[in-house]
Amino acid sequence: MRDVVITGVGLVSSAGEGLDAHLTALADGAPYTDAATFEPFPVHPAAPLEWDRQIPKKSDQRQMEPWQKLGCYAAGLALDAAGAKDDAALKGRMQLIVSAGGGERDYAVDGQILTGLRQANNPGVFLNERLMGDLRPTLFLAQLSNLLAGNISIVHGVTGASRTFMGEESSGVDALRIARERIASGQDDIFLVGGSYNAERPDVLLIYEMGGFLWKKPYAPVWERPAQGGGMILGSGGCFLVLESREHAAARGVTPLAAIAGVASDRSRRKPGSVEGALHALTKQLGAKPDVVLSGATGIKGITDEEQAALRDIAPGAALHATGDLVGHTMEAQAPIGVALAAGLIARGGPSEALVTSIGHWRGEGAIRLTKA
Amino acid sequence: MALRDKQGRPLVAVTGMGVVTSLGQGKDDTWAALTAGRSGIHRIERFPTDGLRTTIAGTIDSVDVEPFCAPMLSERLAMLAAEEAVGQSGLNQEDFPGALFIAVPPVEMEWPQREALAKASGQDGDVTYKDLLKAAASGEFKPWHDLFIFGTVADRVADRFGTRGSPISLSTACSSGATAIQLGVEAIRRGETDAALCIGTDGSVNPESLVRFSLLSALSTQNENPEGASKPFSKNRDGFVMGEGGAALVLEDAEKARARGARILGYVLGCGEKGDGFHRTRSSPDGMPAITAIREALTDAGLAPDDIDYVNAHGTSTPENDKMEAMSCTAVFGERMASVPISSNKSMIGHTLTAAGAVEAVMSLMTIATGRIPPTINYQVPDPAIPLDVVPNVARDAEVRYVLSNSFGFGGQNTCLVFGAEPKGA
């Protein structure tokens, strides 16, 4: 089996743009949340970006909604960081795995339709007419899950082949797991892997509010929320990583930030204690002995406490960061962001081994072990 | 025979298959209708179609779910197909010894749910998402969180069959079903699992989905004669017809399957894929990505173009796809392509979107097993630009050892699979 290393990181979130900005904020930054726009739901909003820097064509920008632009932008940063941006042949054989949900809706149209439906003599016919008349034809392409990958292929020329994984937090872990396995086994040499999330959307807030998962008070740190009822604060952001075999990186003359020593994930029908048990099992499977833990904890009552308890046993001496405190909960992008930060810390010569956790807000447990490259 | 391929990887056997389409429940019903040249396309009765440009589809109306919505129907279709497939394989139906790879349609809350939230909000003026959010806070709608997140269908299927590990939900648009199979093949070849349950499912014919495709001018509008609307490779083709379906395949390391005495239905010999960065909905004009995907699949299978006896086409019946597909096949197979049978199941079941690659994989393996090639129906007006043997209108008997199945999708997705009765040289 071949070693798999990270050679490029692209990261955008409420904490800014780029790995350095994030590592600085991780060390001493104050979390940035917007409590007003979606009151009573705080969100970690995306920092303003100059889209032109990574998505040069306005025509491409117009075809994308924010979740895709965030992802496309982060993908461009990762390609730059890995020294791959200008190598068309390399990008032509680079594989792509994206973890994604779906895209934005037209909120005004939805509201108008709901208002009109109430009075409509024939609601079915009214709905048809309004959808045919009011939906922007290309909006569909901004909604389709696999069109983040499609846009990355178009904008950045990454055209080996793409696969899009769905399934909330788990999809981010499994995207990394499958990419790593394909490189380790020799099937492929180089991947772009990651995801993005736009939290500044009423439709996603709606889904998680229906489930009762959202934090509705002013910002409080992830680990402190369970004692006050628990809840997650969604965050906007995007993260892509360039993964390749050690040999492939060496042949290209690029210096890896860190190695991905293992990715483990599982699911179960959750009951009290199952998250704690899963974390023990996954970290044992990975042989994890971390100096630092980048936790993707949500702040939701029960599962967050269980994670904290498990981590006390697994990594009693390790520094512990909740990535949710830095960027919010970015759902499909949370695991890639944890890995990016872990790789950055290792590359700066701090810890020699890091553990990234991903306990899904509703299902799915994952862990990733990073070591010095 | 060797149970490893020429590259030393485990051979991947198919030991169970299940399918449900608008033509019938179960692979035998679907196959009988498909080889009889019968169409499953009909007028939509599920919702009013007034005001729509397209009023026909291959919906599956025989399956009841509550609440009726795309994730519930997609889940049910996946379950039905998987029950048939796992049942046929003889593997444990509640403790499946392998991983789950499932292609599911991207889901989101639908109009009946939005309306219910709007009503519950008590807002009698202009409704906004603020009102829906207010209604959501009641906790009354909690089950809809689970229903409308992306991982739920996979989670429920994983729970029902006891598959191992984290299930992969995936989308590669209209090639998703093929990608699910490809992921299973790769996991077995890497030795991560001895078995994989690979599923494609799609039950998403609802007003908004239909309108979205309609606004992209992707759908046939020849509503007068629903059975005749899907006309792949015909000169008068004018778009695809949405269909619903579910298909499941049990893949196994051939050596393990043989050792437990399983009946091997065929092999997935090769997978090929290639991205396309040309355009969001259109293929590269030179056909390079599709051509590469086909060639990669053949190479992966250890076959030469001349070995392929039949092509199960993507064949959507859109002007663009069918032209591009014909051109790409001709580029790979050369002059011989004029006499290689190529037919489109979509002429009868419509485009089952996320499920299509898996449904068509099952039909490809049925073609091999029965020596009967399903036709392309509604082929009355040949397109001079596509001078191919599309097996027009009537099924044909032929010895078929190796099949190429094509799947292409929005977002530059091109995935091709090669199936065989036996590996070459066995």
UniProtKB/TrEMBL annotation, chain A:
<protein>
    <submittedName>
        <fullName>Beta-ketoacyl-ACP synthase</fullName>
    </submittedName>
</protein>
<keyword id="KW-0808">Transferase</keyword>
<feature type="domain" description="Beta-ketoacyl synthase-like N-terminal">
    <location>
        <begin position="1"/>
        <end position="248"/>
    </location>
</feature>
<dbReference type="Pfam" id="PF00109">
    <property type="entry name" value="ketoacyl-synt"/>
</dbReference>
<dbReference type="InterPro" id="IPR014030">
    <property type="entry name" value="Ketoacyl_synth_N"/>
</dbReference>
<dbReference type="InterPro" id="IPR016039">
    <property type="entry name" value="Thiolase-like"/>
</dbReference>
<dbReference type="InterPro" id="IPR000794">
    <property type="entry name" value="Beta-ketoacyl_synthase"/>
</dbReference>
UniProtKB/TrEMBL annotation, chain B:
<protein>
    <submittedName>
        <fullName>Beta-ketoacyl-ACP synthase</fullName>
    </submittedName>
</protein>
<dbReference type="InterPro" id="IPR000794">
    <property type="entry name" value="Beta-ketoacyl_synthase"/>
</dbReference>
<dbReference type="Pfam" id="PF00109">
    <property type="entry name" value="ketoacyl-synt"/>
</dbReference>
<dbReference type="InterPro" id="IPR020841">
    <property type="entry name" value="PKS_Beta-ketoAc_synthase_dom"/>
</dbReference>
<dbReference type="InterPro" id="IPR018201">
    <property type="entry name" value="Ketoacyl_synth_AS"/>
</dbReference>
<keyword id="KW-0808">Transferase</keyword>
<comment type="pathway">
    <text>Lipid metabolism; fatty acid biosynthesis.</text>
</comment>
<comment type="similarity">
    <text>Belongs to the thiolase-like superfamily. Beta-ketoacyl-ACP synthases family.</text>
</comment>
<dbReference type="Pfam" id="PF02801">
    <property type="entry name" value="Ketoacyl-synt_C"/>
</dbReference>
<dbReference type="InterPro" id="IPR014031">
    <property type="entry name" value="Ketoacyl_synth_C"/>
</dbReference>
<dbReference type="InterPro" id="IPR016039">
    <property type="entry name" value="Thiolase-like"/>
</dbReference>
<feature type="domain" description="Ketosynthase family 3 (KS3)">
    <location>
        <begin position="9"/>
        <end position="421"/>
    </location>
</feature>
<dbReference type="InterPro" id="IPR014030">
    <property type="entry name" value="Ketoacyl_synth_N"/>
</dbReference>
